[in-house]
Each structure stands twice: as C-alpha cells, then as structure tokens.
Write a structure and sequence with these properties.
This protein is mostly helical. 66% of the residues lie in helices and 0% in strands. The protein has helices at 2-7, 13-47, 62-67, 88-99, 105-123, 125-131, 145-173. The radius of gyration is 21 Å and the shape is flat.
Length: 174
C-alpha cells in the first residue's frame, strides 16, 4: 500500500491515506481484545525470570554492528551478534548508491527505510521480539540478518551497474 501511495500521482493521496489509517485503527481496535492480553502475558513472562529486562535499550553497540561488515571481523553465535558480512564492495557501494544522482529519490528512500528498519530490529529487543512473533528466539537470535545482507548486495549490484554503464559509455566515445 505504501509503495502504491508513494508512486501514485493522484491528487487524492490524502483521502486514500486517511481511509487506510482509519481502517488500520478500526482493525486494531477490534483485535485489541486478543492482542492486549497477549502482550501483557508476554511482558509478564519476560519479567518472571527475575532478571531485569529493558526492552527499549540497545542490545548491540552500533559500531560493533558496522564492524561486522568488514573482513576479519569475528563473531560467534554465543556472542549474540548478527552475521552481516557480505564483502567490502557492498560497504563501499552503499554511500556511492545514496550519492548517485541517476537513481530516483523514492528508490533511495525505500532502501534507507528497509536498512534502517532491519538495523533497529536487530538493535532493540522489543522489535526483535516482534520479529520472532512474541517468543524469545532460541540459540540463533538474528536469523533474519540475511535480509540486511541481501539488501546490501542488491544495492551494490545496482550501483555497480551504473558504474559499468558509465565506464562502457566513456570507452565507446573514445
């Protein structure tokens, strides 16, 4: 829906947006009979172990998360860090992708929202809990880190296609 709304050129965007969120609030209200007790039970179960659980605190250091993108970084499953290594080319191509003027701003916005959303999911325990449908993940916490890596690789391929096309056009002129 968001993609349709973002790409549509209609003047009725505000009306469509309003109808959508009215339907969302209506559905949330109807389903709150089930959702609210479930969330309260999950929060009660998290506090039952006796350990203080802060669901809004970062679980990872953002610098360590970023360092996982470079060769030679070592993380183990026991350490609880996500495996996001996909090659140095992807790390180099990411800023080039966002600085490329030939790529539409809408596409860049979608990529940024996807990467930032996955970053937050891996950093904040509440969002991690939501991604695992309310249960604590067993053994391998960040099993969806491959999505982050896939988006980085897709961005790298997109940027490299622009660079190769540019290089080909320069050779063709000579």
């Amino acid at each position: 829906f968001t993609g349709y709304l973002f790409y549509s050129k209609k003047e009725k965007k505000l009306r469509i947006f309003g109808k959508f969120f009215l339907a969302v609030f209506w559905a949330a209200g109807c389903s709150s009979v089930v959702i609210v007790p479930t969330v309260l039970q999950m929060l009660h179960r998290l506090g039952a172990s006796g350990a203080e659980v802060n669901l809004w605190e970062f679980t990872l250091n953002p610098v360590n998360f970023y360092n996982g993108s470079f060769i030679g970084s070592y993380s183990t499953i026991e350490a609880g860090t996500p495996y996001i290594y996909c090659g140095i080319m992807a790390v180099i191509a990411l800023p080039m992708y966002f600085l490329n003027k030939k790529i539409e701003k809408r596409e860049k916005c979608y990529v940024f929202v996807a990467l930032a959303g996955l970053f937050l999911v891996m950093m904040v325990p509440v969002t991690d809990l939501i991604m695992h449908l309310g249960s604590d993940p067993t053994w391998f916490s960040y099993r969806y880190a491959y999505l982050y890596t896939f988006i980085l690789l897709a961005v790298c391929c997109r940027q490299m296609s622009f660079l190769l096309k540019e290089n080909y056009n320069k050779k063709k002129k000579i």
